[in-house]
Amino acid sequence: MNRFLIGTLSTLLLLFSFSAQAINIELGAQYGYKTQSYDSNNYNQMESITGSLSFYLWERIALELSYTDAKSVVVSKAFTADPKRTTIQNSQILGSDLILILADKKALFQPYIKGGLAQINRKQTIKIENQDTYENEPESAIAPSYGVGLKVALTQSMSLKFSYDIWQTPIGGDSKTNDSAIRAGLTWML
Questions:
Q1: Could you tell me if 93 and 70 are in contact, meaning their C-beta atoms sit under 8 angstroms apart?
Q2: How far apart are CA 142 and CA 153, in angstroms?
Q3: Residue 130, exposed/middle/buried by CB under 10 A (0-12, 13-18, 19+)?
């Protein structure tokens, strides 16, 4: 993780050294929640909270540093006589993305695309009804990340922010999977 932070800070310093303009800073907070259910014994829930700090280097380009804390709960029970199985996964994602805003800074709607890297740490706990609880070894990896979003200006300094983010996660084996999140929140330009 130290290499990831050093790389992010080095990139940030390099970009700042090329910019002669004033750098604008934006704080953001987003929340995501999702549920799916088949019945009371088979369902899943996911909740995430994200904080971000964006440095606008030019009018339409920003470097976003973010931290996401996510929790997923999957409950399953195939038959009435079977014990209920609950899998809880906690994930922490430290992201560093370059953002390209596709509209003027003063526009009401400001769509954007982004791409970068994320340090992903996750751990699973499995509880089986009337049996033991198991914990998997915590996993960690650096993965590519990308996404799209839309900011809707409420005032000159405050906006609504909606995003769809994807992380390509080669954790737990050789094959790659995609984790994704849909989030909504607020941003404040300092």
A1: yes
A2: 33
A3: exposed
CA atoms within 13 A on the CB side of 168: 11
d(CA 59, CA 108): 15
Measured CA to CA, the distance from residue 60 to residue 151 in angstroms comes to 13
| Cα–Cα distance for residue pair 158/170, rounded to 1 Å | 36
Going by C-alpha positions, the residue among 109, 112, 114 that lies closest to residue 97 is 114
Could you tell me the pLDDT band of residue 121, with boundaries at 50, 70 and 90? Answer: very high
**Residue written as token pair 């470097």:** 63
In angstroms, the CA 151 to CA 24 distance is 16
Mean pLDDT value of segment 94-121: 94
This prediction has a pTM of 0.80
Q: Per-residue DSSP letters for 88-106?
A: EEEEEEEEEEEEEE-S-TT
Write out pLDDT tens, residues 68-80. Answer: 999 999 999 888 8
